[in-house]
Amino acid sequence: MRMLLIGAPGSGKGTQSEQIAAHFGVTHISSGDLLRRHVRDGTATGKAVQKFVDRGDLVPDALVMDMLRKPVIAANETGGYVLDGFPRSVEQAQTAYETAHALGVSVQIAVHLDVPTEELVRRLTARGRGSEDTADVIAHRLEVFHEHTLPMLRYYQGREELVVIDGAQPPEQVTAALFAELKAWQHKAGEV
Ligand code: AMP
After folding, report:
1. Which of 11, 54, 55, 88 best tests ligand 1's pocket when mutated (most atoms within 8 Å of CB)?
2. pLDDT tens, 95-116?
3. Does position 128 have pLDDT exceeding 80, yes or no?
4. Residue 190: its pLDDT value, please?
5. How far, in Å, from the CA of 85 to the mean position of ligand 1?
6. φ, ψ for residue 84, nearest 5 deg
7. How far does residue 33's CA lie from ligand 1's centre (Å)?
8. Contact (CB, 8 A) for 82 and 52
9. High-pLDDT (> 70) share of the chain, %
10. Comparison of pLDDT for 127 and 2, the residue scoring more
11. Largest CA distance in the chain
């Protein structure tokens, strides 16, 4: 299975991606986690992206694409992937489609974990992940989501299957809803 989990910062996409990976035997690939690891390790990519991540801005597309190419191809060979945090804009989705299609690793199903903004702010403020989660940066990250990522949902609506899940429910209920949708999709697609 090759899927995208799309959601605003604080929507629980990291937690839910872990559940999906464990249950469906796919690899969880988080662009945010990979970027943070580069920053921590002080790599060339880390140095190039740090200011964007700290401000809550999107990192330039080419850097993210280069970083993800190998893990996505490797995951495709071992059961598939759940991509968490990528793509994040219509432009990234279009470029990713062209690259992935040529390699035979393109997305089969996109899921939007939908959470109201007030709940996102509450969760992000409680989480407090250093410089990424100050009040100003939280507000900016949510603005970036609305401006760049929400329009991308329309893109997937017109292509792959797009499923919307109520992400404001308790985490176990979100997981149950996700599993039910993914199993239904697998049956329909003849994947199991
Ligand atoms: P996340 O943990 O997914 O919220 O990502 C943390 C930060 O990493 C974001 O605020 C961006 O600065 C950067 N980032 C993650 N994924 C992407 C992406 N697909 N494109 C550009 N920047 C990204």
Report:
1. 88
2. 999 988 888 888 999 999 999 9
3. no
4. 86
5. 6
6. -120, 110
7. 8
8. no
9. 99
10. 2
11. 46
Q: Helix crossing, 135-144 with 44-55: angle to 10°?
A: 100
Closest CA to 109 of 185, 52, 41: 185
Record the tokens describing residue 130, joined without a space.
């250093």
CA 165 – CA 145 distance, rounded (Å): 17
User: What share of the chain in percent tops pLDDT 90?
Assistant: 84
Q: Which atom, in ligand 1's list, is nearest to the CA of 144?
A: 10
Average pLDDT for residues 142-170, to the nearest whole number? 93
Ligand 1 mutation pick, 58, 134, 144, 149, max ligand atoms within 8 A of CB: 58
Give me the residues paired with residue 6 across strands: 112
Inter-residue long-range contacts of 70-78, CB under 8 Å, 24+ positions, other chains counted:
71/27, 71/29, 71/34, 72/29, 72/100, 72/105, 73/103, 73/105, 74/27, 75/26, 75/27, 75/29, 76/2, 76/103, 76/104, 76/105, 78/27
Residue 102 or 30, more confident:
30
pTM higher than the cut 0.90: yes
Return all residues near 37 (Cβ < 8 A) that are at least 6 apart.
Answer: 46
Nearest protein CA to atom 4 of ligand 1, as residue: 9
Q: Quote the pLDDT of residue 129.
A: 75
Q: Nearest CA to 125 among 2, 10, 8?
A: 10
Name all residues whose Cβ lies below 6 A of ligand 1.
Answer: 9, 31-32, 35, 52-53, 56-59, 64, 85-88, 92, 141
